[in-house]
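Standup notes
- DV: blocked on the single-chain target, sequence here:
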Amino acid sequence: AGAGAGAGAGACLAEPPGGAVAQWLPLVAAPAASVCRVIPEEHDAAFAVGYDDIPPSSEELPPEVTLTGVTMAATFHLRCEVNLQECAMQLRNATYNPRCPNGSVLRIRLVDPTPLCAEFWPGGEACIKSCKANAEELRVIARRLARMIQKCGHPNAKFSAFRVYNLQAQARLGFPVRLEAVAKKWERHCMYEPEVTNCLQFFLAEPRCSLQIYGTGTVAVKGAAGMPEAQEALRKVYPLLREFSR
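- DV (later): unblocked, structure below
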């Protein structure tokens, strides 16, 4: 028995039925013991390919279910090399540390029209961190940042390749959700570990984004390309969650 326990702590002794993949997760409370969790093979394929077996629905969202607290992040390019140290010497609210372990990055902080932080790299790439602004406001802010770099001894800097790459928003469904039942029925779309976190991750292939669903009925949309995609993702998932309302 002792030898079997020692061998079981490191690897799975028997192959699980149905061609499933077994993963051993050591228990924190009892290091000598282990538990074998069986994961279907098609579960890994769902994350690599993305299933779109959700039934189509023409149902619209109720008026009280709206996305709030919208934050966006964007990237753009200056199409030229940037001397980060020279820009940091001429710009206000700019920081540059060449010894930073993450590499040479110039950070510029703005408070008008909205508080934000922008990062620039020597190759001309730029990123605006998540801030409470819509796509048009982010475009105006990005053009303003490009103009600031242009005035710092880079006349060839040109604003280009603007793209909103991450939108985050929240909504309240108005009813609590039984996360265990959702994860059981839509296991190919879900990742739910109640021992690790209190939310369920729901992945969509179209539109490509993820939703964090809480048992209280709060849903957070993350990774959407824009507001229409976030609205469509919430509309697509709403009937599925209503089925498992408490």
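- Follow-up: Residues 28 and 196 are 13 Å apart (CA to CA).
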